[in-house]
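Cross-check.
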Amino acid sequence: MKLGFAEEQSLYSSGSQKARAWTERWVRDWAFCPNCGAANITPYPANRPVADFYCGKCAEDYELKSQKTKFGAKIVDGAFETMRNRLESTTNPNFLLLNYDLKQLVVRDLVVVPKYFFTPLIIEKRKPLAPTARRAGWIGCNILLNLIPSIGKISIVDQGVVRSKQDILDQWQKTRFLRNEKPENRGWLLNVMRCVEQIGKQEFEIDDIYAFEPHLSLQYPNNKHVKQKIRQQLQVLRDTGYLEFVSRGSYRLVLPK
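Predicted model, tokenized:
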């Protein structure tokens, strides 16, 4: 995988236009499909409202977001209602998050987030635009990256180093079970996965995760059996290979390569 851009790839004069042309061209030429491993993904025609690229082999869709600085806790996205509708649709794309160095004309980082990690919980509604704005009243949204478990942010290029393709495919497949979960169940699983990661230990006791009961109760105020729900999610995560059962009340997080 070549990480550099070629200057002759862009005819634009502004830096932002050049960067967009270079990054889109780079993804077209070098990015592979992390779902099926196909060597390339194909750009959609310009101005398609849902996605930027698709895999001709498995039909996965991808939306590219690129910027010079590292992605932080949140990403500014489009219309709130559009995003909310996308979450309920089968056309919701996976996200490619690309950081580039415009001086050196290279890709620094590339992360893919599978679409099944996107739930209403991580979509933050922004304030409506002021009455004096050109699109007065328009409401945008932010994507809260910090609420996505780290295993759902699959690094393809990390600080200029390309990861093994097989490791990327393995990490994608490790969480693919979430795709078949109903939205409410998926939300619970993702919350418990985040709690497991926040414990900060590969091996933990069930009391460690019970400590998150107040936090989860705030997110699910109508659920009066949060501990039972936590145990249920641990069972699912064990059955899918995300966790291993060590002994009574003890679990081990199965880390990706």
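The domain at 7-72+93-117+147-175 is CATH 3.40.210.30 (PvuII Endonuclease; Chain A). DSSP finds seven helices and 13 strands in the chain. Passed to J.P. for a second look.
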